[in-house]
Every structure is written in C-alpha cells, then in structure tokens.
Amino acid sequence: MGWTDYLLALPITMLALFAVGILLIDLMLPQDMKWLNAVTAFVGVLFSAGSTYFKIQLLLAENNTGGMPGMMRTMLVDRFALYFFYLFLAATAIAILMSVRYLEIEHENHGEYYALMLLSVAGMMCMAAGFDLVLIFIGLELMAMSTYVLVGFLRRDRRSNEAALKYFLLGAFSSGIFAYGLSLFYGLAGSTNLAVINHEIGNRMADPQYRPVVIVALVTTLTGLLFKIAAVPFHQWAPDAYEGAPTCITGFMSVAVKAAGWAMMLRILIVGLMPLRAIWTPMLVFVAIASMTGANLAALTQTNTKRLLAYSSIAHVGYMLLGLVAGTATELSPDGLKGILIYLLVYTFMNLGAFGVITALRHRHVIGDELDDLDGLYSRAPVEAVLMLVFLLSLAGLPPLAGFWGKYFIFLSLIESGHYVLAALAVIYSVFGLYYYLKMANAMFMKQPEKGEEKLPVSLAMRVAIAVTGIATLYIGLLPNSFIELVNWALGLSQAAPVARLIR
Amino acid sequence: MQSHILSIILFTPLLGALLLLFVNKENKDAIRWIANIFSLGGFLISLPLVPWFWAVRFEPGFKFTEGAANNWIPSIGAGYVLGIDGISFLLIMLTTLLGWISILSSWNAIENRVKEYYIWFLVLQTGMLGVFMSLDFFLFFVFWEAMLVPMYLLIGIWGGPRKLYAAIKFFLYTLAGSVLMLLGILFLYFHHYTSTLASTGTGVYTFSLEALYQTAPKIYSDYGPYAATLLFLSFFFAFAIKVPMFPFHTWLPDAHVEAPTAGSVILAGVLLKMGTYGFIRFSLPFFPNVLSNPATFLGMTVRGWMIFLSIVGILYGALVSLMQKDMKKLVAYSSVSHLGFCTLGIFVLTPLGLSGSVLQQINHGISTGALFLIVGILYERRHTREISEYGGISNVMPLYATITMIMFLSSMGLPLLNGFVGEFTILQGTFMENWRWAAWAVPGVILAAAYLLWLYQRVFFGTVTNPKNEKLHDLTPREVLTFVPLLIMAFWIGLYPKPFMQILEQPVNHTIAIVRPNYPQAGSTVNASAKPASGTMQIEIKDTTPAPAPEGSK
Hints:
Chain A is mainly alpha-helical.
C-alpha cells in the first residue's frame, strides 16, 4: 500500500469525508439554514471531481489505456472508471440542485439526505473502479443501502415507505443471489480478482465436470446484475420504487444508480466473464427483447409520469443491452460498447432534465406526478415546457438531440454485427416509445391547464439544473463529435490528444 | 454569395424564428409582420437562384455545393454538405413560395398563441429546405426527422377538434417509416466501409451521398437480391408513408382535416414531396438492380408492385374523394390520387415519366396548395367545411368563385393549365413503357374532373340555399395576394413548360442512365414518341431537348 493507493481512492474518500461532515454540520444548523447542507454536498462533489482531475489523471500517463491498479489490485482506475466517476458526479450535482426546494416543500430537509447521496456515490465509484468481486460487492451494497433509505426519505408519505420496503426486500434478495453467484465464481477460480477469474474460468468451462456449476454461477450473477439495472423480468421493483421515492431521488436513481449498475455489469461481463460470452449472450438477447417489449407496452397505459418514466428507463436498458450483445460480438467493432457509454451519458442529462421538470411541478398542495398535472404546462412555465419537450423527444431518440446518439451507435453496432432482426425490433419499439412521450408533450402543449393559469414557481437551483441538462441535451445532439471522441478515449480506442481539452 | 446561397436560403427562416423569440408575445401585429417579412425574404432571397441555376442547368452533377464531406462530425463521417440539381431546385423554389403564401394566409386565421405559431412555422420551413438541399445522408435524416416536430405541434396546437389524435398519428406514422430508413442508411454506411476496405484497403466511414452513390448499387451483388430488396423496402416504407402511397395513406386525411389551413398547404404542397423526392434521390440510384430484378413476389416484380400501388392509389383516392362530405377531406384524398400519378411517373422509369412526375409534384403543390387555401377561406368565414352547408356561393363571392374555378381546372388537368402538362407527360411516359398501365391510370383524370366539378357545382352554383351564406364578403386584397403567385405559376407551367423541362433534363437523364443503363437516351426517345401523336406537348418537349446530353459521366 503506497501512497498512490490513497491517491487513487481520493475521490471516494473525499465523498465519504464530506458525507460525515454534513452529518456533523447538520447538527449545528438551525431549521432555516438547512440549505447549507446542499451547498456542502455540492462542494463535496466538486472536491471529488477536483481530486479526480488533479490527482488521478496526473497519475495516468497520457497513453495509459490499461489504467492504474491500486489497493492490492482490488481497484483498477482506468479511463473507463474515470468516465463513470465524472458521470456519477455530474448526475449527483444536478440531483442536488433539484433537491433543495423539493425537500423544503416536503418538510424533510435533513442533512442525512445529502450525506446518503454522497455515500451512495462513493459506493458507485467502488463499483466502477472495482477490479475485485469483494470491492464491487461492497460498493454495490453501500450504494444500495443508501438508496433504500433515500427512497423512503419521505417518512410521512405512505407511498414512499411502501416503495422503500419493496425496494429493500427485493434488493436484499437479489443481492443475496448475486453474492451467491460471486461466491461460486470465487470457488471456481480460486480468486476474487476479475483478471484471474477471466483466466481460470475458460479452463473450468472446458471441463464438463464443472460446467453445471459455471452455468449456475453465471445465471445467479446475471440475475443480480440485471436486477440492478432493472431489466425485465427483474424490473418489478422499479416502477414502484420510482413512483414512491422523492422525485429528485427518482431522477438520481434512474441515471446514477443505473449507470453504476452498468459500470459493474460491463466490468464483470467483459473483463471477468468474457470467456462465457457464448452463454450469456443469448440470455441477454432474451432479456433485451423482453425489456423493450414489456416496458414499452406497459408504459403506453401509465397515467403517472414517474411510473411512465420508470418504464421508459427499463425500455432504454433494453436498447443498451442490445449494444452489449452487439458490442461483444466481434473484436472488430466496439461500437456497441461505445453506444452504451454514450447512451448513459446522454441519458443522464435528458432523464435528469425530465425528472427535474416533474420535480418542479411539486409545489404547495400539488404532488404533481400525474399526467394531468402536466396539462397546459406551456402556459404556466413556457421555458420549462419547451425544455421538457426537448428532453422527451431526446428520450424518444429524435435527431438532432442527444438521445439520438445513444440509439444511433446501438443500431449501428447491430447492423455491423449482422443482428438485423434485433435492429428492426429495436427501431420499431422506439416508435412505441415516441407515443408515450408524446402523450406527455400533448398534455403540456395542447391541453388547457385544469388547475388555474398561475405561473409555476421554480426555484433558482432548479432552473440551473434544468438549464444545464437542457443545454447539454441540445449541445451533445448538435455537436456530438467531442463526446464521441471522449467515449473512444474512455474505452481506450483512441489516445488522449483530441479529448484532452474536455477531460484531462 | 453564390457559394453560400443555399445556406442563406436555408437559414433565413430560422433567423426569423430566433428573432421572434425576443418579441413580446402580446404584440401580435409585430410578430405577424416579422414572420411575413422573413418568409417573403426567404422567397426573395431564393429568387437569384433562378438565373444562376438557369445558366448552369445542363451541367452535370450537383450545383452550388458547399461544405465538405465529414466536416460536421468527423468521428462518424457526417458532413454539412449542401447542393442542388434541377429536381431539388424546383422543389426549393416551391417551398420558399408556399412558405411565404401560407404564412401570409394565416394572418387572420391564427389568433391565439401567435408567436409560437410563427416560430414553429419558420422552423418547419428550414427543416423542409434542408431535406431538399442535403447531400449528406446523415444531414438529410436529421432534417427529415427534425421537421416532424414543428409539424406535429402545428397540427396539435392550432388544429381542429380531433387535433391530438391527428397530430400523434401523423408523427407516429412518419416516424415508423423513417426509423426503418435509419437502419437502411446505417447499412449503406457500413457497406460503404466494407466495400472501400475491399477495394482500396482502407475502409472509409462516410454518409456523403456522392460516396454512397458509388458503392450502394454494389449491395445487390455483394449481399444478394434478397438483402437488397429488403434494404429497398426499408427506404420504401419511409418514402411511401410520406408520399403517401396506398395503403400507407391513412394518416393523411386526418392530418389534413385537423391541421390549420396553412399547415395543410405546407403539408400537401411540400411535405408530401419529400417522399417522392426520396424515391428519386435515393431509391432509384441506390437500388437500380432491385427495380430491374425480374424475380416476382405474389406474381409481380418489385417495380410491378410499385406501379400497382401507384395505380391503386390514383383510383382509390379519386373514388374516395367522390364520396366526401367535407371539402377539406375531399381535397386530402385528391392528394392521394395526384401523388399516385407522381409515383407512377417515377417507377415507370422513363425520362418522360420522371420529369412529368417532378413537374406534377410542383403542380400539385401549386394547385392543391391553392385548393386548401380556398377551403380555408370559406372555413374562416363560416367555420364549417360541410359541403351541404353551402350552395350558390358564386353569387356572393364572385371573385373567389372565379379563382376557385381556375384552380379546380388546374387540379383536374385541363389543357393550358399546369395540371395537364404534368399528368400528360406522366401518362405519355407510362404509355411508352406499357400502355396497360396508362390505361388503368387515365380514369383517375376523369374521376378528378368528376369530383372537383361536382364539388364546384354543389358549393358555388345555384341560388344561395343557406341564409347564413348571404352576407359573406368576397376576398380581401391580402387573400387575393396569396393566390396571385399561384395563378401565375399555374398559367406559366400550363402555357410554356419548356423552361421547367430544361431544368429537369439533366438530373432526369442522369437518374435514368443509372437505373436503366441501356435505355435509349432522351433525344431519341422523345422523337420516337412524337411521331404517332401530334399534341402540342410533344413538340414542346422535342424543342427543349438538345442533342443527347453527354450522359456517360458518372
């Protein structure tokens, strides 16, 4: 353990320290100063980002695509991990901005909220940078425990409590199954290190004696992974949890928690279990089709916007899974993986933006998460309504908006790897998607507000959050080049040069 | 200026839209003036293109190109490349003209949410122009999709009673077609990479049309006829839904009936032409072998199916028009019939058919655009479009009745007016290919006369039957102004179509040379067909055709 190890863990440590700090400061703050907690948390995020930028990136040599192992090889901080670090931090920063006013309205303005948020991000970072099953699992649990609490943070709201309980029970159960799968892999490979597993599992697979165990291990591990990213048929918790959770946490979960699940999934499947690709690909194809079908059809009839967006996020997972299927099909084209990373990036902005607008609808006595609450939003908050339209069309994947790029690379990779039927299915389902997004757009632009014409009060922090996500959605959509290069960089496909401007 | 004229035309409306953002929404007259100035400006700015284009009309290739391949998103090979040939030139002029007219026509029609209305309309205008100008497949796709949004909002916010349904239906139908096209585009893109990799050793990822024109026809030999046909179909659905060809037309009556008048004008006048434009620009040169493939499906070749659907569309649209009780719906279904002629002209794959088709697209934009304006004017005064509510209108609105008569005659294809030239040329081209096709299509012309004249009789002739109609005032000068350019164009094309034929000659011959390399060149064809008939049209066209153009190039 040299001091570089501590430097590598600095962003994570930073977050944990700030989380503890918030808990302490919170004790001393009077009720009307609680917004300072949000400021502290925001500063914590900035510090974490700063330490990522100044310390770790300096450690990584310009053309080091392999990354830096640390903490006795349990961590691997490479560009892939850095990419996710920034993604988590961006999502958290925006979610913090969205939370301030919401918590005040709910009278739940406690410091724990932000502390838990930072702790969950620390867990996510462990998942993204973990190179060892144990660290990954600890990160996962840290993240999951924090989000269970956050989902149930509205203590006086029965929906929130119910959601937290459901999420907790199902989550704990799936974690158990996941841990069981991981333990089998440990038994098979004799190590928890992903590289060792990769090396050993191929040999084990060749031996028919071990084959049933390998398959059981794979299926249980996959169950845990798919549960975390909420893919059909392991998605049942998502609509309930999304509906009951505080809206800003729903937004946070739908992007950051999901991205962390993806980071973990990519690490485990591509680094650790690549030799088993022939077995997990058909399963993923099935899950992807089931996710797109189930979620897109279920979303059509939703009348609660949070549930609707929950189903839409499940559908998006379906598309991303196709990217994983196609991206690992040949050595030649990593476009599918590129697609997943881009997808997660643009999804962060557009989905957080959409949830931001829905969060803004919560004021005084209006809960604001029914489809009817969007009625006539245009006349009550024109800027927010137009941006919401941008987010929705982006979610639907219309060019030239950011969401198109995620789909673009996924479809491209499917074409490249010859999965024409899957590609056709995916595009057809994206038309279904447009229908339910347009239902929301219809409500905003083409219906009259039922509950009076008064202007919607939107806090400054919320405005900043929505503006940032809106600008990002438009900017990535129109000029995606630097972001595509960023993803190439993150995947080690290109050297740092052109991207250096952006990250590094 | 010449080198950037296309960008200037493209972004003038968008500039207007951006400017409108900063105008107070209560100041409705200022908004109207600004929108009108920018739409008229957009039209006036496109006028210099006419002499400039005229000077280079016989030169091969695309003119006024600007931008370079892959300059927009280098990492995937998408570029901002614009350029036009004769076909897109005419459609661009039609777009700028109709854009101005429809914005002018909405002066009184739109009373609420005026600001957004004009903003979306101007954005739509840019989107449509972009579709016709793009020489990069990716750019094309972006414009093609992005343009749906303003149209969706125009129908959905300012539309009639069933606007929500119509707006979503319009959006979903067109998107369903275009997502399949996206897959097709990606396939072409990937195929370009592999085929350049095979031929030169370095694979190139690009969406540049010039590059794809080189490799796309090879798909037929690389992947076999089956794959090529599927690929053809993926484009076909996008374009056929847009045109719309029978049986993909069901969104059209809803969208037209519910859209505000100006929206209908643009929808019929320009949006539908994107489908036919797509056929000419992409389907024909990309998949020549699919169209000449003799293999049959359910007894017909691919090309046979296209022609079959076109003829069914012609007859079906006309028959359904006969039965309509709502004027706007009648005009909407007549569009299905007229666009059937356009697709027929495309897929007979003769130079005459193709140039007739493009000309007919322009004609349809002029006359059907005018028909929607006509319906809209009555609607503004009475707020109903039921034919049975009217009768004897010519007594109270004589000027209106006169203009309507001219436009009806133009739409049904009376000689000396524009519709005749287009339909006649298409039918002539069809006849040269297969007289039976022409024979099936001709009843469409007769039926058009039937439904339009019958409509005219019911609405305009006789005495005023409905007391509510006694006090209707005739056209205002602004309304007359919206018709003047359309009337001029209708007579111009009807009396002297030669310039239009000359503009179309190069791109049409070029396209036919790609699709049917062995087809006799334009000059000889026209001479051969000129012998049996002696109508003025053939003589006109014969005159316009100089010595066979040097078509070996590309």
